[in-house]
Amino acid sequence: MLVALLLFSGLSSVAQAGLIISPLAADLSTSSYTQSSFYISSTAESVFNGGVWNAGTTGYHWIQADMGLIKTLTQLKITIAQAPNGSTSHDVYLSNSLIGNNYSSLTPIFSHSGSTINGQLLDILFATPQSGRYLQIVSYGGPTSWTALGDINGRINWIQPAINSSGQGSQNVPEPSTIAIFALGIVGLASRRLKKQS
Questions:
Q1: CATH 2.60.120.260 for the 3-173 domain, yes or no
Q2: Beta bridge pairs of residue 64
Q3: When comparing pLDDT for 178 and 123, which is higher?
Q4: pLDDT at 125
Q5: Helix count and strand count (H, E) for the chain
Q6: What does the angle CA 39 – CA 44 – CA 47 come to, to the nearest 5 degrees?
Q7: Strand 110-116 to strand 86-95: parallel, antiparallel, or no bridges (unpaired)?
Q8: pLDDT by residue (tens digit) across 135-171?
Q9: Per-domain residue ranges of the chain
Q10: Distances from the Cα of 29 to the Cαs of 34, 48, 91, 141, in angstroms?
């Protein structure tokens, strides 16, 4: 069975669930997620929030998230897990309108098709940021594998330097080394001031 996981941007913290696809498409209302087909409880909502989506059958199938507002994506990572290794394909679409089964009329913002192996990482940094409200992933698991996305490992959140339609950027969290240098500078200034006073 093919299982793939798709993520956007840099790693941050670990919680319970699987790897999330994008912080911009996570933690939305249940009605924000749709899929062409699913098997038992492995739905689009699950995979966008760190679990697994499984179409429950072979062929081309899709998952979609309505992010509510126009969002801008800068990076895409696809980690493929499959058995057996073989040919797969993955297309990602962004649109300001609901996509559903109409994806064939759109141009994907990312495409990969060809031979893949278990654990292979497709890491794409867009030369031009891509914007849209509806994020859809269309996948094909090959002729002998059910089409699925996601993982059952611990949830990993991402910090993405993305901008929304109003042009406001997300806040970047300073690295510990930057904070430590800043703190040392403050201590040094305070120490110097105390010396002058005495």
A1: yes
A2: 34, 136
A3: 123
A4: 78
A5: 2, 10
A6: 100
A7: antiparallel
A8: 999 999 888 888 888 776 667 776 554 444 343 433 3
A9: 3-173
A10: 11, 11, 24, 28
Residue 148 β-bridge partners: 54
**Joined tokens for residue 61:** 């199938």
Between CA 116 and CA 82 the distance in angstroms is 8
Read off the pLDDT band of 95 (50, 70, 90).
very high
Q: What is the residue-wise DSSP string for 141-160? A: --TTS--EEE-SS-EEEEE-
User: How is residue 184 written in tokens?
Assistant: 């040392």
HSE-CB for 34 with a 13 A CA cutoff: 12
Query: Which tokens go with 159?
Result: 């910090």
* Closest by Cα among 168, 172, 160 to 74: 160
3-state secondary structure of 55: coil
Output DSSP code: residue 21: S
CA–CA gap between residue 27 and residue 187 (Å, rounded): 40
Q: Where are the alpha helices (DSSP H) in 38-126?
A: 44-48
Q: State pLDDT tens for residues 45-84.
A: 988 887 778 888 888 999 999 999 999 988 766 666 676 7
pLDDT tier for residue 117 given thresholds of 50, 70 and 90: confident
